[in-house]
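User: I'm curious whether this sequence folds into something compact or stays loose and floppy. Could you predict its structure so I can see for myself?
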Amino acid sequence: MDLGPEFRLFCLTLRRPQTADDLREMRRLAAATEHWDFIVRGARRHRVGALVLGGLQACNSPDMPAGVLAALRRLSVASARRNLVQGAEVGRLYRLLTEAGVRVLVLKGIALSVQLYGEPVRRDARDIDLLVDPAELARAAAVLTHAGYRRGQNAASPRQAAAYLRWIKEFEFFHEDTGGMVELHHRLTDNPSLLSFDFPSLWNEREEVRLFGDTVVATVPRQRLPLYLCVHGGDHGWARLHWLVDFSAALSQAQEMATLVETADACGLRWSFLHALLLAHDWLGLPAEENLLARLRRSGKIRRREWLMRRLYSPKTWYYAAPKGSWSRAVRYSLWERLYRFSLKSDWRYRASQLRREWFSPADRDAVPLPDALSWLYPLLRPWGWLIRRLSLF
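Assistant: Here's the prediction. I'll summarize afterward.
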């Protein structure tokens, strides 16, 4: 995939560690780059401002516009401030949930930043993701409500609440004063057929990380990270490169590659895992055996995923997210990303389950409200709910 010189320069800034060859190539590309705004916009979209800034500063190119570095510094400072605020809130909620007897794992965000990179401000964290045992979900929701949060989804009846639990992996909560968002997960993936890591196993193997001072939280065990990050990024069509950066870092710190591939194969995710590895190698310089890379490039399964990735990334779209309500955004998320999601596993049970899930959307219940007695009509109304939501955004 040739996405242009700016994209190559952008990816080189994300590599860690950067080799002497990387730095020389960055200086060459910086001298030829015309569209520096692509770099800044890409850093904003992919939430990697601090990484891009550090990478550009390391190459020490005289051709780098001062305005670009200033814009990246602003992104980095804003990200660091958000992380500090989020870290305090994660610590508060973790303490409240623990005191209520709720076992909780902090997903991604600041906990992953400490776990993978040893510092809380490396990743650009947005919302807070918490995973609890499904049996403790109601108690956890009550704790969040008492802490000033309100439920985002409308679940007016027990039947609606049961539908959310069946099809959606998390509930959204918004703080009434700060506007901060917490996603309260009761499993790792919307489709439980995609990744079957259960909460008791994750909890028994949990890793604890220190955020700030005496704030220690539990998170996903390190040995499970590569496959979880692969599934999370793939489920979103690798829309943000900071997910691929995390996946690459987790692979670099993990056990032998053969063991990881065996684990992915046992979960039915062999080819999705290998495609993510190939992307991490091509874009981020992740070391990999040449024989393995050659086999992957010849594989029809990999080429089909590459074909989809060329629809998800292009020289004109990699650095910006299409605005909400636009048809280009609808095509990306409603067609190409959905097809990539279907490609994650070839198992017919997964695809059948995924197809059923695609016919349910909580947003449809808000766009076309129906009483419980008529809720069986939602699969038939799915196209109309989608169209109503699209038209309402224009």
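Summary: Strands lie at 104-107, 128-132, 149-151, 170-175, 181-185, 207-210, 216-219. The chain has a mean pLDDT of 89.
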